[in-house]
Design goal:
948 residues, alpha/beta, 5-stranded mixed beta sheet, 38 helices, 24 strands, 43% helix, 13% strand, DNA-binding
Length: 948
DNA sequence: AATCCGACACCCG
DNA sequence: CGGGTGTCGGATT
């Protein structure tokens, strides 16, 4: 359940007659408890209450109070030893009249009428596994508003199928935006209080009957109201039909002011309202909209249109803390520093205010405008401090009191019409609220109508549009835009004396969509081709988000300023790094700041499973770069010379995949890829059953190792048939059946040429590589929490799957390298990761691993330390690698064996142990650079992706 | 002809 | 039911 559904469930609960026996179960059900959980609690199996209530372990202790003894009951719950021992997070007591509750972790306390419980539902959200964040806790209004609008939207679409078409969808979006504005206006004094909802209640009648009559007249009333808001109030005797008198506006509508500002121009129709839709409309109007939080509301409201929107672009809402991680280092911190430096100097303060008015914020994936709204609010806060230091509003001329920050400085690109509409509106609301806060409600109201120019949101595909046209780099444009606002709009710059010589700064920000190369749709691939094909030859492995970085770099190359996005961390890893970041450098941009990988989270019920980074780019400069390193202990900040494409504090280096090792290492093979040969892979039970069925099968079975099998020491079994034995194997019916099935799977992929080519070889995997005696196995994916990479020595005839790399029949000192801390550091730095997991690669990690030339003595030493590692493991038989390398429980002898191994290897590198991993990585980067500098003579097989 | 990566997928405590 | 940890497919070089 998400927060919206929970709010509805709690609201429904308190509307029903109070049932003392059932309330505890109804309550936890409202927060998403499963039926089985509730049944067990009801039966008493899991109910741990010792005071006659209901106690759900790790969650809540609920007490039903005798009438009038709610406080006493809560005290009993609090005093109950079981409350603590069962780790209850919440207490709640009620008699059906009043409710008292306590959040034992957060410390919040609530006492209210039973019927008001829904107003406090957010406090209990942890019960549903939703961690509360300040925004939602303080503003259940946003959740309610979203739920009600969502229902209205769906209902309107159902009743007005003709509005579901491509063209009219825009009209419906605009219609919804108008409604939101009107709700907001009637609760904030822009209209008379409740004027809009009351007018609809009185003037429209609910639908009834059939035929046309079944729709009632709600749509006609709304059309008339909106027509009035689009018609200026007349001057006496003026018969121009554009004005009210001549336009024949009905009296009930004439009471509304002229709003316009683009919001009410265009289509005049309203959709038809069924009885249900009208009810939803009025219920939405009942909410107190002045508390709306435009930054989070906008994102939540996107859910309104979500079900029916085809694309998923811009759907992922960025939390406010994460937005600030982008905006603060991008430009807000600098403004604050300048404010600090200005002290009380009037001249400096005026200059800073002038600068604020010349800053443009541009979000080329703006969705409903979160980043723009937060940026606006932060800038207004800074401006307010300037005004205070200038002596407060009272000392300023009227013209100077008004904000110097025009909404028209806020630019966006958004592919979805509804979101764009919400973004424009959210900015207007943010401005109105800022005016209320920093000027006065009265002035804010006086200035808001008619609506003036808002953010300039272009509807379209950000990878197809020319950003220089969407947000033109010309300084003159700015003044022009502001003039358009007219006398009632934002203050023209000249009035404040703010324009002269003002340099326009543009900051690009946002959270664009992510899609890895093997998840991209064909149109997304075309988008990337459009961006990258003029720039570089090979771009096919880039994530969709890389298109935004490339466009931003090109834009900044024309305008200066800066750009920062939240991004999937994959663009700073593995094969994407040597493609994307040399291009950014060639466009004369560099990384100015970055946050290293952290887990994505927001208020959504189901968070996207993704790990993200934040990267800011800027024109190349000598200024220090700022690296925010995210660790388990929190975030550390470093000012350093350079941040490279791996987000490492080191000079620019690009490790390209290589098919041959740059050092003198043994060859490491990619594992055997089945390619639609699932029926050749068996569990140990299946394999036994097969042998029982026909003992001849045994000759064709091999232990089969992927990542899991190596780490847990338990192989699966595969059917392994060499070409020479194919006929003999096919003569065994139980094998033949499996071969038929493999053939069918491959035939079913006619478009996959690799699969087609294998149709005639259904008895084997695509690859068939095996060892003579043994191999060193290196799992493809493994946890990042172990202090060393997992690897093992495994005897033939076992084989590896494509989830495991193998060095066949090679000297053991190779294992010493794989198992070294240096290799752990290198793989972690230059290979891709799955989230944070290690994702091993032979081409990116093994073949590129820089190692000084090893003498025979070195090799002998490393062979010995490798043997010691294996011996130490054996001493703990049958412990698995997972057991042995548990970061909290690694046996001392094994740890010593690794220390010794590292000691020997690191002496070969620098004659002593490295101090830490940072020093290791620096040395590895240096050595790699040296070793690949004269690659031509070494026969390196790198292919350079040429930068145009 | 071989490999990279997942706005993930799944498993087990 | 969510933190911990690696499958499997299929586009790409």
């Amino acid at each position: 359940m998400n927060a919206v559904e929970i709010e509805e469930a709690v609201s429904d609960l308190v509307l029903q007659p109070f049932d003392a026996a059932e309330f505890p179960f109804q309550f936890i059900t409202a927060f998403g408890a499963k039926k089985a959980t509730v049944d067990r609690l009801r039966k008493g199996d899991t109910n741990q209450s010792d005071v006659g209530g209901v106690l759900q372990r790790n969650n809540i202790h609920i007490g039903i109070a005798p009438a009038g003894e709610v406080a006493e009951t809560l005290a009993r719950l609090r005093a109950s030893p079981k409350t603590a021992s069962a780790k209850a997070k919440f207490l709640i007591a009620t008699d059906g009249e009043t409710v008292e509750a306590e959040d034992l972790i957060g410390g919040d306390v609530v006492a209210c009428a039973y019927a008001d419980l829904p107003r406090h539902f957010a406090m209990f959200l942890p019960l549903a596994g939703i961690s509360t964040v300040k925004e939602i806790k303080n503003n259940p209004i946003d959740v309610k508003a979203t739920g009600r609008l969502n229902k209205l939207y769906v209902e309107l679409l159902k009743d007005n199928p003709d509005w579901a078409t491509e063209d009219r969808r825009h009209e419906l979006n605009q219609f919804m935006a108008r409604l939101i504005f009107c709700f907001f206006a009637e609760d904030t004094g822009i209209f008379r209080e409740h004027q809009f909802t009351e007018t609809i209640t009185q003037m429209s009648h609910a639908a009834h009957g059939s035929g046309e009559e079944q729709w009632g007249n709600t749509h006609e009333v709304l059309t008339e109201l909106f027509r009035a808001m689009d018609t200026p109030v007349t001057h006496e005797g003026n018969l121009d039909p554009r004005y009210r008198q001549a336009a024949n506006i009905r009296p009930y509508a004439d009471a509304f002011p002229y709003v316009n500002g683009g919001l009410f121009t265009g289509a005049v129709d309203a959709p038809r309202f069924s009885r249900t839709a009208r009810a939803y409309l009025l219920r939405a109007g009942e909410l107190d909209w002045k508390e709306i939080n435009p930054d989070i509301f906008g994102s939540m409201i996107q859910a309104v249109a979500e079900d029916d929107e085809r694309g998923e672009l811009g759907m992922h809402y960025t939390s406010v803390p994460n937005i600030l991680k982008v905006l603060n280092p991008l430009f807000l911190d600098d403004l604050r520093e300048q404010l600090e430096a200005a002290g009380d100097s009037k001249q400096k303060l005026r200059n800073l205010r002038k600068r604020l008015g010349n800053i443009r914020v541009f979000d080329p994936a703006c969705g409903s405008g979160n980043f723009l709204v937060i940026a606006y609010k932060q800038m207004r806060a800074i401006e307010a401090e300037i005004v205070t230091r200038l002596g407060g509003e009272a000392s300023l001329k009227l013209a100077e009191r008004r904000s110097a920050i025009p909404l028209s400085n806020f630019y966006g690109i958004e592919i979805k019409g509804f979101a764009a509409e919400v973004a424009r509106l959210a900015l207007l609301i943010a401005e109105f609220q800022a005016d209320c806060l920093y000027l006065s409600q009265q002035e804010a109201r006086a200035m808001v109508l008619p609506l003036h120019k808002t953010g300039q949101i272009t509807i379209g595909n950000a990878l197809r549009l020319d950003w220089l046209e969407v947000c033109p780099p010309v300084g003159a444009t700015l003044a022009e835009e502001v003039d358009l606002a007219g006398p009632t709009g934002r203050l023209a710059l000249e009035d404040n004396g703010l324009d002269e010589g003002g340099r326009v700064e543009t900051y690009i920000c946002g959270n664009p969509p992510y899609a890895g190369y093997n998840k991209q749709s064909s149109s997304q691939k075309e988008d990337l081709a459009h961006v990258f094909s003029p720039l570089i030859k090979r771009w096919g492995n880039l994530d969709y988000v890389a298109g935004w970085f490339a466009n931003a770099a090109r834009y900044l190359d024309h305008t200066g300023g800066g750009a920062a996005f939240v991004s999937t961390n994959t663009i700073s890893q593995g094969g994407q790094v040597p493609v994307l970041w040399p291009l950014i450098l060639s466009l004369r941009q560099q990384i100015g700041f970055a946050h290293t990988s952290f887990k994505w989270s927001n208020l959504a019920a189901h968070n996207a499973g993704i790990t993200v980074i934040i990267v800011g780019i800027r024109p190349v400069s000598a200024a220090p770069a700022i690296l925010f390193e995210e660790g388990p202990e929190g975030t550390t900040v470093r000012r350093i010379d350079n941040i490279n494409g791996y987000l490492a504090p080191a000079r620019d280096i690009f490790v390209k995949p290589s098919s041959v090792a740059v050092s003198n290492l043994a060859k490491m093979n990619f594992g055997n890829h089945p390619y639609y040969a699932a029926d050749l892979i068996l569990s140990q039970q299946e394999a036994r059953a097969l042998v029982i069925e026909d003992s001849r099968v045994a000759a064709f079975l091999r232990p089969y190792y992927g990542s899991t099998e190596v780490i847990y020491g338990t192989p699966r079994i595969c059917i392994w048939v060499n070409d020479a034995d194919a006929e003999q194997a096919a003569a065994i019916p139980t094998l033949q059946r499996r071969f038929d099935s493999v053939r069918a799977d491959r035939v079913a992929k006619p478009d996959d040429s690799s699969a087609s080519a294998l149709v005639s070889f259904p008895y084997r995997f695509r690859d068939q590589v095996e060892s003579k005696q043994y191999f060193i196995a290196v799992p493809q994916t493994s946890s990042e929490n172990r202090p060393y990479l997992p690897c093992d020595l495994i005897a033939a005839p076992a084989v590896v799957s494509f989830k495991c790399f193998a060095i066949h029949d090679a000297p053991l000192w190779n294992l010493a390298l794989v198992a070294s801390r240096l290799h752990w550091v290198w793989i972690g730095a230059v290979c891709a990761r799955l989230e944070m997991r290690f994702s091993y690669s032979n081409t990116l990690g093994w073949n590129t691993f820089p190692v000084p030339k090893l003498t025979e003595q070195d090799k002998a030493d490393l062979t010995r330390t490798a043997e010691n590692i294996l011996l130490a493991r054996e001493a703990h038989f049958p412990a698995t690698i997972a057991d042995l390398y548990d970061p909290d429980a690694m046996p001392d002898d094994l740890r010593r064996a690794h220390e010794e191994n590292d000691e020997v290897l690191e002496r070969i590198f620098i004659g002593r142990r490295f101090r830490n991993d940072t020093e290791r990585l620096e040395r590895l980067f240096d050595l790699y650079t040296k070793m690949t500098a004269n690659a031509g003579t070494k026969g390196m097989a790198t292919k350079k992706s040429k930068v145009a």
